[in-house]
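Q: My collaborator sent me two sequences in one message, no labels, and asked for predicted structures for both. Can we handle them in order? The first one she listed is below.
A: Yes, handling them in the order given. First sequence, followed by its structure tokens:
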Amino acid sequence: DVQLQASGGGLVQPGGSLRLSCAASGFTFDDYAIGWFRQAPGKEREGVSCIMSSGGTTFYADSVKGRFTISRDNAKNTVYLQMNSLKPEDTAVYYCAASRKGTPRLFRLWVLSREYDYWGQGTLVTVSS
């Protein structure tokens, strides 16, 4: 069975940090790009970041550039999202997803949910004092 297990969410004060993890199983992890999405209450799901299969290419939403860093460890079938300088507007359920698409396509379309083949359950991040 394909599984994507997101973890690491929690309550953090503004300015704080969290590291999310996405552990994958049931498919050839090295062949897939992994994206992070988030959905705040009453809002649509939005793309946060994406890392290509080799880890050499990454994409970020403008709202998180300079604060979030995505990385992957293919030996552990895991992708990480290091989130620093967190703001209340970062509060959301965060999801990870896997895409078999290549860089030429995801360079333009990584923010679109339809480009991803597998999805995990979410992990809640709450930024509040």
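Q: And the one she listed second?
A: Here it is, processed independently of the first:
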Amino acid sequence: QLQASGGGLVQAGGSLRLSCAASGRTFSSYAMGWFRQVPGKERESVAVISWSGSSTYYADSVKGRFTISRDNGKNTVYLQMNSLKPEDTAVYYCAADGKHRWYSGIYSSSSYEYDYWGQGTQVTVSS
């Protein structure tokens, strides 16, 4: 139901834009997030956006470089990634928080609160 795309190989300092398209269900009332994982490490939150788009959260490691946005009319969430670093290399997943629909802000940035997940897209940043 969530399809992530836009990953790829990019040089350090470059940019990528990830997209997460939803199908089969409208996620306009759900907070949405981007998470990433490297082998042997826990999945970590990258950025989260409230259902209305009025609230956002960013991990310290990506603040000022990444921007999350959403288009509820298109049922799509985006992650614009600029000034990429080799340490940004990971599989990126989008997810939706179905347990706190219509919550005015961001209930949680923890991946454990998100119950709808896409399949992931690989981002590789070369030095």
